Amino acid sequence: MAANIPFVDLTRQHQVISKELESAMKGVLDSGCFVQGLQLEAFEQEFAAYCEVAHCVGVGNGLDALALLLRAYGIGPGDEVIVPTNTFIATWLAVTAVGATIVPVEPDERAHNLSPALIEAHITPRTRCVMPVHLYGQPADMDPIMALADRHGLVVIEDNAQAQGALYKGRPTGSLGHAAATSFYPGKNLGALGDGGAVVTSDPAIAGRVRMLRNYGSEKKYDHQALGCNSRLDEIQAAVLRVKLRQLGEWNKERRAIAARYDYLLGGLHVIRPSVPESVTPVWHLYVIRSEHRDALQAHLRDQGIQTIIHYPVPPHQQACYASQMPGNSYPLTECLCSEVLSLPMYPGLTEAEQHRVALSIASFRH
Ligand SMILES: *Cc1c(COP(=O)(O)O)cnc(C)c1O
């Protein structure tokens, strides 16, 4: 029996750069500076440049990045924030964290992302913000969303946790809205060796505010202007991220090649492959297929030693923490997608032979 194919294997990407990672971490150890130092400063400059924006502020994780941005824009109780129904729960939790009201909107069925046409119907006089998520590494349709936001005076915050390096009409995600939050959770396309996150924006006032809030509401030591928190990207993670940022272009290219091979191998089989609008270049954080017999298909793959994951099995509005606040809310498309989506193994280092095995196993599935 062939070796199992894990859903994700980070050791494969780390092996390639283990020397650089070790020397980056050793450098921090020898410097004696572990928080708010030169590594963070350098990474912030490099990641801002990568996203083609003026400012980056490193923070503790992706959820904090989203919530700190909402706070920086002064969004709070009484304000409405439009979010996708089919996202990781962090998008919703950030809105809840600042006391604002979640307004869930269903996605476009093919792209899995917020659809500009559906957003418009949910705008009220209380709407302050739209938070599109570039789900699975594929940019949302941002031009019409920005046009809508302009017309209604809304702030657009991109949730770019899954799409670092993706392009929309040639422009990188993170530079498309007024500001963006991202996550460096280890499994993301650009992952740290622990938790991490960042805010990017070309608005100096917003960057400054997040910078203050992440550090106890303080710009000067022991001078506290706002009720801040402690959410910082530490020196070890910043040093590691600098090494990995240099690889990100190659890794994303490899993910695109893996996606193209899956597209080819799965053609003609009884699953729905991802659909990619012409205006975007995705970075394939996940390669997500759909099947009406998803659970049986997943079990069949598991029996053949192939691990898959469902993103996400239960949508936020049906989670215990939200269900009681929004009784009767039903999002049929999202609920249907949750019952049909299946994420296949996808990561730099996944081999062609392994992809063939995945495809053969799907081809041999009978329900
Ligand atoms: C991972 C993720 C987050 C949260 O990031 P953390 O660093 O885990 O807090 C937010 N939104 C989306 C879409 C994500 O995938």
Strand order of the largest sheet: 1-9-8-5-4-2-3
Number of strands: 14
Number of helices: 13
CATH topology-level fold name of the largest domain: Aspartate Aminotransferase, domain 2
User: What structural category do the secondary elements indicate?
Assistant: alpha/beta
* CATH homologous superfamily caption of the largest domain: Type I PLP-dependent aspartate aminotransferase-like (Major domain)
Q: Could you describe the 3D structure shown?
A:
The chain is an alpha/beta fold and 367 residues long. The model has no long low-confidence stretch (mean pLDDT 97). A hairpin with a 2-residue loop joins strand 10 and strand 11. Helix 2 (18-31) runs antiparallel to helix 9 (235-266) and helix 4 (62-72) runs parallel beside helix 5. The strands form 4 sheets. A 7-stranded mixed β-sheet has the order 1-9-8-5-4-2-3, with helices on both faces. 41% of the residues lie in helices and 14% in strands. The chain contains 13 helices and 14 strands. The protein binds pyridoxal-5'-phosphate. The site of pyridoxal-5'-phosphate (PLP) has 15 residues, from helix 4 and helix 5.
